[in-house]
Amino acid sequence: MITVVGSINMDLVVGTERFPKQGETVLGNLHTTIPGGKGANQAVAAARLGGEVAMIGAVGTDPFGDELVTNLENEGVDVSRVKRVEGPSGIANILLSEGDNRIIVVPGANHQLTPEDIDHSEAAIAASDLVVLQLEIPIPSVLRTLQIARRNQVPVILNPAPADGFSPEFLQYEPILTPNESEAAMMFGENWERALEAHPNRLIVTLGQNGARYYDGDRHIRVPGIRVNAVDTTGAGDTFNGALAVALAEKMPLEDAIRFANAAASLSVEQFGAQGGMPGRGETVERMK
Ligand code: ADP
Question: Is the ipTM of this structure higher than 0.90?
Fold first, then answer.
């Protein structure tokens, strides 16, 4: 069982030919609502790849809350620990124009996932093969999850995104960290490559189309990405993390697990949308050949 402790958002996507200036109104040419949030995305990625996945999170009492829970259920994710709280669900307001984007995230219900909620889920965390975390929920709740997982000897993947929520305090719980290059630079400075050797087999930096790298205690290893025609890289990191979780929960060796994650993420960038592009197990295994 993989337990994802994280955010659940509705993405409100609006396309326009140009962004409005201050005080201006423009007509848009596209509007969709798509389930997202890093936590939910990583849960869906893992479930599609054959993982048995449970989600700990919070949605609001608004209609989005129902839609978000139903979406996770339809993906086979156990939602019995997704709580409903008064008020709105988390949303990401995404403006798209000329290949550029402007995003406002309003955490809403996600910010009501408390350390006490995590305490109440200790038995579920203890029974997990692996826990997956990101930084879109309150940081005290991230910390509590790390503490409980550690106490119960459950390994954790901490995807440190957004990286401004990262605290060096997390390191003492020895999670597997999966920043991209800019997140690694925010966490460890421009010379983040040095940090690889301080965290052997636990700091995996994703490199976009170039794959990912880590230090195995002896050598630096880069696991190459798979060249594809990328149309939308939204959710590449989420797919990578969901896939890595499935592979590590199955006790795949780290290098093979990263190959699996690169393959899954390469499939995801060939399609539009975060969850929209997340692949199944068969096509991912096929791509590794
Ligand atoms: P994020 O999406 O979090 O910014 P990256 O850009 O490093 O992180 O991408 C995460 C993973 O997605 C990479 O390690 C790689 O496996 C895959 N990936 C991303 N972009 C591409 C691409 N253009 N082609 C193939 N794989 C990609």
Answer: yes
